[in-house]
Design brief:
This protein is 33% helix and 30% strand. The protein has 145 residues and is α+β, with helices and mostly antiparallel strands. The protein has one domain. A hairpin with a 2-residue loop joins strand 2 and strand 3.
């Protein structure tokens, strides 16, 4: 094999990489940096998780980058400990995007807030042709104290 063919082969193999260095990972990294530059650590946000057996709408309060309160939007009551343990801050949602990307899922679609650059929608399809494994997270009603 000639040297120029070897170089072309290496370039093509590198271009086929769909792992965490792919376009989605790069955009997520850029958006996370833009979000981090804002320095926002106190906020509240509404989270909706859709899946086979969805969670209720939850209002999450974050202070100093940590979840300090989580209540059901429907009646204001505190969420139970199991559900609260599954909640994530905005930074935690960026972590989720990275984790899912690293797992090599079949489909990952993320939408971002156009002003603050945090994820507003994360839709995941872990495996092709598997029923009811898809899930999504929607973040809305962002507010700062």
């Amino acid at each position: 094999m000639r040297m120029d063919h070897c170089i072309l082969f290496v370039v093509l193999v590198a271009a086929c990489d769909s792992g965490p260095t792919g376009v989605g990972f790069q955009e997520s990294a850029e958006r996370r940096m833009a979000w981090s530059r804002l320095g926002i650590t106190d906020y509240s946000i509404t989270r909706e998780r859709s899946a086979f057996g969805s969670d209720p709408l939850i209002r999450i309060t974050v202070r100093g980058g940590e979840i300090t309160n989580a209540t059901l939007v429907s009646d204001g009551s505190a969420v139970d400990a199991r559900l609260r343990a599954s909640l994530r801050t905005i930074d935690g949602t960026f972590d989720l995007i990275n984790e899912v990307s690293d797992q090599g899922v079949y489909g990952l679609n993320v939408q971002y807030d156009p002003v603050r650059n945090f994820p507003t929608s994360v839709a995941v399809d872990p495996q092709h042709n598997v029923a009811d494994d898809e899930y999504g997270i929607e973040l809305s009603d962002f507010a700062m104290p």
